[in-house]
Design brief:
The structure is a single chain. The chain is α+β, with helices and mostly antiparallel strands and about 325 residues long. The chain folds into two domains: about 190 residues, Fructose-1,6-Bisphosphatase, Chain A, domain 1; about 130 residues, D-Maltodextrin-Binding Protein, domain 2 (3-Layer(aba) Sandwich), CATH 3.40.190. It is built from eight helices and 15 strands. An eight-stranded mixed sheet has the order 4-3-5-6-7-8-9-10, with helices on both faces. The chain has a five-stranded mixed sheet with strand order 12-11-13-15-14, with helices on both faces. β11, α5 and β12 form a beta-alpha-beta unit. It is globular. The termini are far apart. The relative contact order is 0.13. Bound molecules: 2,5-anhydro-1,6-di-O-phosphono-D-glucitol and manganese (II) ion (MN) (2 copies). 2,5-anhydro-1,6-di-O-phosphono-D-glucitol (AHG) binds next to β5. One manganese (II) ion binds next to β5.
Length: about 325
């Protein structure tokens, strides 16, 4: 079988299909290279002294793990000097990170969740990296947070790497979703699945059930119908999976369908859900829609939300279209 590398795939997209400009191709290659480094660090575990807490807090008030900090550093360093970016933003940094003056400034903005699924790091369960790429606004001077506040529909690329039994990179530039597997010996990303499609119907759901008593009525109703199975309104049994790494849960859904939910609840109205719009929900929504699925906050399409803050949170319902449509209907 002829192997297609990520580089070849991107060059062909640029040259033959004209779907991506050269600068965006470079950007994606650099992010992919950074994910390779993160994968390497993740794989070392205790041998690389990368497990455990960094004893610092991020802007979300969460204690950072060593790997949160290491992965953030890897992504910043890899992307600073190439000339393809104007600025970066990260879950782990309160403010945006403009490209230092000593390097040329490009026309893209990169956002990332450097290490997703932090609670799984120390127990050797799949974790990942999520990224989103926006175009800097026309005529932008020195980049500010305001320049990042664009709806997800304006993303020009998004992807995630999942560090599991295999390391994979799942990518969209708005022309389908493609999956690359890391050949660890060769150090290269190899195209292993073109045009991933999420089945429209599913019998599998993902939600943190321990929050059940805090949910709003539409989510209570929807999940209780799933749980009632063949004896309830749905007339079929559902199975549940919850990995607690969004990357890993979404990757399963891309492969065999399912619905993933992280709803808002009644506890703290200043925190609508747990997940962050700009570097978790938006990139995943872009990927899921490109794979034929749907992504809403219960009421609106996630990618239509006009962001007001870099680190804002959003309720998330995504995956197989029939289920996302149903739970969204219950919200109306
Ligand atoms: P992060 O590690 O980047 O903070 O994200 C963790 C998120 C997401 O990946 C996952 O779906 C969810 O938190 C898990 O939440 P619970 O702790 O409620 O299971
Ligand atoms: Mn995350
Ligand atoms: Mn994270």
């Amino acid at each position: 079988m002829k192997r297609v590398s990520l580089t070849q795939y991107l060059v062909e997209e640029q040259r033959l299909n004209n779907t991506i400009p050269a600068e965006l191709r470079l950007l994606i290659e650099v992010v992919a290279r950074a994910c390779k480094s993160i994968s390497h660090a993740v794989g070392k575990g205790a041998l690389g002294d990368v497990l455990g807490s960094a004893d610092t807090e991020n802007i979300q008030g969460e204690v950072q793990k060593k790997l949160d900090v290491i992965s953030n550093e890897i992504l910043l360093q890899a992307n600073e000097w190439g000339g393809h970016l104007a600025a970066m933003a990260s879950e782990e940094m309160e403010s945006i990170h403009p490209i230092p003056n000593r390097y040329p400034m490009g026309e893209y903005l990169l956002l990332f969740d450097p290490l997703d699924g932090s609670s799984n790091i120390d127990v050797n369960v799949s974790i990942g990296t999520i990224f989103s790429v926006l175009k800097a606004p026309e005529g932008m001077g020195t980049p500010t947070e305001q320049d990042f506040l664009q709806a997800g529909a304006r993303q020009v690329a998004a992807g995630y790497a999942v560090y599991g039994p295999q390391t994979m990179l799942v990518l969209t530039t708005g022309h389908g979703v493609h999956c690359f597997t890391l050949d660890r010996e060769m150090g290269s990303w190899v195209l292993t699945e073109r045009d991933m499609k999420i089945p429209q119907a599913t019998k599998e759901f993902a939600i943190n059930m321990s929050n059940q008593r805090h949910w709003h009525p539409p989510v209570q109703r929807y999940v209780s119908e799933l749980l009632a199975g063949s004896t309830g309104a749905r007339g079929k049994d559902f199975n549940m999976r919850w990995i607690a790494s969004m990357v890993a849960d979404v990757h399963r859904i891309l492969n065999r369908g399912g619905v993933f939910m992280y709803p808002a609840d009644v506890r703290d109205t200043s925190k609508p859900g747990k997940l962050r719009l700009m570097y978790e929900a938006n990139p995943m929504a872009f990927i899921v829609e490109q794979a034929g699925g749907a992504a809403t906050d219960g009421v609106r399409r996630i990618m239509d939300i006009e962001p007001t803050q870099l680190h804002q949170r959003v309720p998330v319902f995504l995956g197989s279209k029939e289920e996302v449509d149903l739970v969204s209907r219950y919200h109306q």
